[in-house]
Design a protein that fits this description.
The protein is an alpha/beta fold and 322 residues long. Helices cover 48% and strands 17% of the residues. It has 14 helices and ten strands.
Length: 322
């Protein structure tokens, strides 16, 4: 009997030790060519995971919707999405929060030789929009267009919606005259004979937003903040240092070229500069104020389909380490 009790306590001890050994584990959802994947690769290559005692497991996802499903099911601890999604979840009682990550947004692109003097020159042309009818870049564009021209572009353009890769493909084949796409897809087009005639960030001042506006961030459950070993804070410090390397080192971009999907030096350069441009530099209070303003703009255009029952950005949506 004594032997059995000893055996039991030995097993219990081993289980507790193993659980303690997993306290530094973080499962992060990444997209194959997504910027989070680049950042985590740099983090590991430079030993920042060891420096901050992290055991990071990258879980590759096919798209952002799959990443959201994985997060909701508990299959991953962190993924990247926008604060609209987080605010909507908080209104439904879920204690999720977000650390702003990137201000990189999309734009309107068309072939280099196309002559356009004004957005009104696009009347009745075939314009593809990535991400669907409630995509944030499209909603900002609609708000701007309505303010500047008094018309809703949904009635002005011949608009269609598709995935970002398909928008690029249709532009290349000439099946679209112009397209609104995400920044990293536009970067690929700009190196292949296309030009951006409008970046979404350039319309923000006209909408009353001054300074950086991060649209996406790292999303996690609030109880992860309270972990006794500061796991989350260690992870974010590591990613901050990783991002700084990508901001300063061109050589690092050459090393991760394959991860970016860049087909040539020019494409790599446009992707690199787009990433660097998207690193938020404004003070935290400015970022939070801009996010709150942006929420109202998007709510007024996107309605309940976008924000659910939300009337303003839900309290606790944005998290910064104090």
């Amino acid at each position: 009997m004594i032997f059995r009790f000893k055996k039991y306590y030995i097993i219990l001890f081993l289980v507790l030790v193993s659980l303690k050994g997993t306290s530094n584990d973080l499962r992060i959802a990444v997209l194959k060519f997504g910027s989070v994947n680049w950042e985590l690769d740099v983090l590991k290559y430079h030993g920042l995971d060891k420096k901050y005692d992290l055991n990071i497991k990258k879980i590759q996802m096919t798209n952002k919707d799959a990443a959201a499903i994985a997060f909701l099911s508990g299959s991953v601890d962190i993924f990247v999405t926008d604060w609209i999604w987080v605010s909507k979840q908080r209104y439904e009682g879920k204690k999720f929060t977000l650390l702003p990550y990137s201000s990189a947004v999309g734009g309107l692109v068309m072939k280099e030789e196309t002559k356009v003097n004004s957005l009104k020159d696009l009347k009745d042309l075939k314009v593809g929009v990535a991400g669907g009818s409630i995509d944030k870049s499209w909603l900002f564009f609609r708000a701007f267009f309505k303010k500047e021209y008094g018309e809703d572009p949904t009635n002005f353009f011949n608009t269609s919606f598709a995935s970002p890769p398909l928008i690029n493909g249709l532009l290349k084949t000439g099946n679209l005259d112009a397209g609104i796409n995400y920044w990293n897809y536009i970067a690929r087009l700009e190196s292949q004979g296309f030009k951006s005639i409008l970046y979404i960030e350039d319309i923000f001042p006209a909408l009353g937003i001054k300074g950086d506006l991060p649209l996406i961030g790292y999303v996690f459950k609030e109880d992860l903040i309270a972990k006794e070993n500061n796991l989350l804070r260690r992870f974010f410090q590591a990613t901050k240092e990783s991002r700084k390397i990508l901001e300063k080192s061109d050589d690092e971009w050459n090393r991760i070229r394959k991860l970016t999907g860049a087909e040539d030096d020019k494409m790599l350069e446009t992707i690199r500069e787009g990433f660097r441009k998207g690193i938020p530099k404004s003070e935290e209070n400015v970022l939070i104020e801009n996010i709150s303003k942006a929420y109202t703009i998007l709510k007024d255009i996107g309605g309940k389909k976008l924000v659910g029952e939300g009337t303003s950005l839900a309290k606790g949506t944005i998290w910064y380490d104090k």
